[in-house]
Specification:
- By secondary structure, the protein is mostly helical.
- The chain has three domains: about 100 residues, no CATH class; about 80 residues, Serine Threonine Protein Phosphatase 5, Tetratricopeptide repeat (Alpha Horseshoe); about 100 residues, no CATH class.
- It is about 75% helix and about 0% strand.
- The longest helix is centred in the N-terminal third of the chain and has 32 residues.
- The chain starts with a helix and ends in a 9-residue tail after the last helix.
Length: about 325
Amino acid sequence: MAINYLRQGGGATTAALTILVGLAATGVVMLMVSLLPWGHATLVLDAVILLLTVKCAKALQGPSIEQHKRCGGRIASLWAAFGIGAGVLAVNGLTIWVIGTGGHIRPSPPAPAEVRTGQGAAKSSADNAAELLRALRASAEHGDARAQVELGQRYQRGDGVPRDAAEAMRWFHKSADQGSAEGEFDLAFMYLYALDVKSDDAQAAHWFRVAADQGLAKAQFQLGSLYRNGRGVQRDQATAARWFRKASEQGYADAQFYLSCMYENGEGVARDDVQAYMWLELAKAHAAGDRDRELYTPNLEALTRKMNPQEIAEANRLAREWKPKIYGQP
């Protein structure tokens, strides 16, 4: 039947239908894309599709079955025309979706040059840091003791501001005058170790004591060290051991180590190997890292050699049962 249809002029009819369908589809697409971005690119593609449609229609126009086979195979010519028309519509629809319609697949605008080079992120980070510094300074100037300590530490390190020991001490003084233990400690530390300022052991001892009386463990340890070495205060081993004990009871590893040494040597306290072993075990447990823990191993081995098993067992028991003391509680 299809062969008879072709012989009777069906090829011409098919060609006409094909061209009409292609023209209609392309016209609709041109109208739609005229309102969309990148429409000119789609129009070019539509023109190419239309030319291919016309060429295919010419191939279908011949009366012979052989010509018809080249374009559509052994199917009815009308269905071939429909297939070509549908193909035109599908290709145009896909083109519209990809180049700027419902799929929203559009080229992203180019990033600013400073973002592409990483300068934008750096600038943003610098802006944030400057804003934080302004807020910190404002809080410090309004009397916030913690902000004063942090601002002083920034001047001490040169963090976001020029390094300035005198300015650091000024902020530490402001914080210390408000009773901040951290401010008192930092001020004493600068006096003791002459960090770009004139050393003053007496002032260091004074401010360490004020902070230690508030229960700051690191200040208690530093004050104990001053008494042990006679810096800024009269040398006094018993007082040194007392301050080491206060810091040790809060779990301060350095103080626990020094208290162990004092028990082992009988300095400021009665000699007691069990107490020495216990505090050394605790110091090792509270050390900041493996390297610090290893520093205590030779002392433990030396104590072990001169202690009997019962004494070692008792020291280990005391270390297991030890609990840190919260300052201010009995």
